[in-house]
Protein 1
Amino acid sequence: MPLSPTRLYPALLILVGVSALATAYTAQFGFGLEPCILCLYQRVPFALSIVLGLVGLWRPAWLVGVFTLATIIFAANAGVAVYHVGVEQHWWASAVGCGGKLVTQVSAQDLMASLSTKPAKSCDTVDWTMFGISIAGWNIVFSGALAAASLYVLRTRKWETPS
């Protein structure tokens, strides 16, 4: 028995979020690809898509709002990914803490404490590519397509609300 669009589309939002996060965590913990801060920021929209999907399943009357937010969230994530690719390609410097800062005054205790902590991964380091495109580059494509798909669903669906 096929799902109605009222149930199917929120379920797809959940599936997208779970799949994207599972892929990111598999790359991190299974294959040792360390994420930078921009990589971590790009995971947030996928977690939010899970929440939005659950809201859509729980409150079908809110589906217009759910897919409006999904469109905005995925488009914003594509924007962050464009910014990340720019940092990777050295088109511009990162405005976030990617790789630490040069400290002018440091105490001996601070120096000893810093030796035991791992420095933040630099956002301009590309650890993995497929067809010459980094993970952030693929996220532009993926998030852009998800934004377009969410907008398409939002504009073409006539939501049947259960009575």
Note: Strands lie at 129-130, 133-134.
Protein 2
Amino acid sequence: MGKRGWLNLALLLAVAVLAAVVYWQPGKQSEPASPLTPLDPTAVQRMTIERPAAETIVLQRQDKQWRMIEPLAVAANSFQVRRVLEPLTQQSLQRYPAAGLELTKYGLRPPRAKLTADGVELSFGKVNPLNSRLYVRVDDVMHMVAQNDISFLTAPWLEFVSTAPLPDAPLAGLTLPGLGTITKDQAGWRYEGPSAPQSADQLQALVDNWRHLRALRVRPLQAADISQQVEVRLASGATLQFALQSDADALVLQRRDLGLEYVFDGDQSQRLLAWPPLHGADGSLPANEGD
């Protein structure tokens, strides 16, 4: 290619870049960065997440705890809730009046996802190919933000379910297959069954293992031959029933009333269905692993 040809090519590329800038950054307003919304995430009470071709998720704060209301009434995953709250305070780096814009071009009609928090609606669109910023519409303004990953908004609803099978509430008792019944009274925890623990600390350690239980994942209820049952009694008077399946590979707790399964490593059977081992010359217990 001759010198003139290279010059023409360079001019064409320059025009293309300018056209792209005009296309993707219409009427840019140079203003100081500010949050997308005036909301305080610690005060938000209700959020709705809408996605094309996926279930709508409704989250509600109740007694300082987040719960999923739709598509299933169950405790919410606190980590996922925190991620959903983050966009409310993200900085708007650029903003444009939405009126007159071809919103389809920016992935905002329809949006990839829509988040409504206490009546404030955020629509999430495409990522700008020139600067990797995300288009977000709030009311009549289209914003651009640096955080462009919205996978937490488009995730399956099961990922918003808490991995804790037991609520964050005081326990009153447990009935465990092959072990017996543990009940709390004014004197503390007491045991009824075929194989008593060697100490009160061992009894307390088993209860703590259940209190701090966290599943690897939550999945829809699977058809399985599960004959063992676990009963958990709360101090409030409520009773939770779990069907249990355990082998070398996995331990599964089924909440058939919710249509959910909580899946754990197989070695959890030793922590949940047997007395924690004593060790050391003084008979001390291993430290509790917590969450």
Note: The longest helix spans residues 3-24.
Protein 3
Amino acid sequence: MVDVFESISASKETELKISELLSTQSIFELVFEIVKDSGFYNQDENFKLIRALNIDTTEESLEEDLYSTWITMGDNLNTAKTQEEFNAKFALFVPIILKRMELINRVAI
């Protein structure tokens, strides 16, 4: 998880670019596999939370959807009081972020 934020914080720009977010996809994929293997996504409560968080956005483009979801994730992570809570919140957003990234990649091909 730290790799994602280190990758983004390496940017010298004041505003995140979609290409910078997309460059973290391989890290999100790795985290997804690790979390999936732990059984976290198989727990009913976590699955329901992911479905609830995975709402359609009202943005005009797929890129804006990703950016909006990323900001929502960041806002939620900033409320974590413990490392465990941070990790759980991050894990909940991983499949949602990946879905948004994959949609952008499909259109780009």
Note: The chain has one domain: 2-9+24-108.
Protein 4
Amino acid sequence: MSGAAARARRRVLWMNLLFSAGLALALPWFVAGALAHAWVPARGTLWTTHHAYAVRTFWFGLLGMLAPLVAPGVGLGLLAVVWLWCAARLARAWLAWEREEWITDPGRFV
């Protein structure tokens, strides 16, 4: 693995760790989202798909966190659904990271 690809793999590792911690605490979620946006993925490698996947996961998770504020009556239920959805996406991200695989169609909902 080239130096750029190894660096990109480590970056994806940190994003996944922070997103996973963000399922319990909100602050790591925001840090992971900032890193997903700030770090430039290794273009042309499989890690590019991981970055796109992380950015999409961040924004949907953020919208889910805001649901209780926007719609107090159904917001907590929506928050639970979004939390489960984010947990499923993180499981998929971890599996792809561990296997060093592309995330096919990172724009999918799951």
Note: The chain has a mean pLDDT of 86.
